[in-house]
Amino acid sequence: MLCQVGVGTTNPTSELEIETSNTGIPALEINPQTAPVGTADGQLSVIGDKLYMYDLTRAKWLSIESTTLLYGRTGSRTNEVLRLMGNFGNQNSGAFIPMDATIVHISARARGGNSTKQFSLEIRNGAGFVSSTIYNLAASEYINTALNIDINAGEYLIARIGSAGGNVTDLILTVWLKWRQ
């Protein structure tokens, strides 16, 4: 049985429709929670001051918003740190992560050189190593939309070109983060 609910309308065009007028009153209010228990994909909750959706595959609350980090190096390179946008990067720094986050997607592309070149994402805490995940290009590209790598507030995310297998040319790496509860 198809059931539709309309608030402010007797002819809803979706399962739930809230018809509003320009009164200045918000159409919907979700009161903030501190520790909701997620049980199904797509559940929504305001936690603190952010809107989160429960991701059943990753078994955690992730922010609706995502943050994109861009890394790259021009020229023929091997065994080097990729530069974070603005030509910033060395082995002891990188993108500072201000809140607990989860890396959910990455993509990489090279213009030439070794088409299966290895690269890595490193999580560091200042100068201290926390973890590293290694990837390989395939036909000069790499895409992974199912990542589930946690990174904690106060840690740094660094991207590095591997040392084995010759050089890679003009490597660019994009990393998508979602804030985690």
Any overview of this molecule?
The chain has 181 residues and is mainly beta. It has strands spanning 5-7, 16-18, 44-47, 50-55, 60-63, 67-77, 83-84, 95-96, 101-109, 112-113, 118-125, 128-136, 141-144, 149-151, 156-161, 168-179. Strands 6, 7, 9, 10, 13, 14 and 16 form a 7-stranded antiparallel β-sheet that branches. A 4-stranded antiparallel β-sheet has the order 8-15-11-12, with no helix packed on it. A hairpin with a 2-residue loop joins strand 11 and strand 12. The chain is elongated, with a radius of gyration of 21 Å. The two termini are 36 Å apart. 25% of the residues are buried.
Number of DSSP helices? 0
Low-confidence parts: none
Head-to-tail CA distance between termini: 36 Å
Q: What shape does the CA trace take?
A: elongated
Helix content: under 10%
Structural class: mainly beta
User: Overall pLDDT, averaged?
Assistant: 92
Tell me the strand percentage band.
over 45%
Largest sheet: 7 strands, antiparallel
Order of helices and strands: EEEEEEEEEEEEEEEE
The count of strands amounts to: 16
List keywords for this structure.
four-stranded antiparallel β-sheet, mainly beta, 181 residues
Give a brief outline of the structure:
Helix content is 0%, strand content 49%.
Per-chain topology:
Layout: E1 5-7, E2 16-18, E3 44-47, E4 50-55, E5 60-63, E6 67-77, E7 83-84, E8 95-96, E9 101-109, E10 112-113, E11 118-125, E12 128-136, E13 141-144, E14 149-151, E15 156-161, E16 168-179
Parallel strand pairs: 1-2
Antiparallel strand pairs: 3-4, 4-5, 6-7, 6-16, 8-15, 9-13, 9-14, 9-16, 10-16, 11-12, 11-15
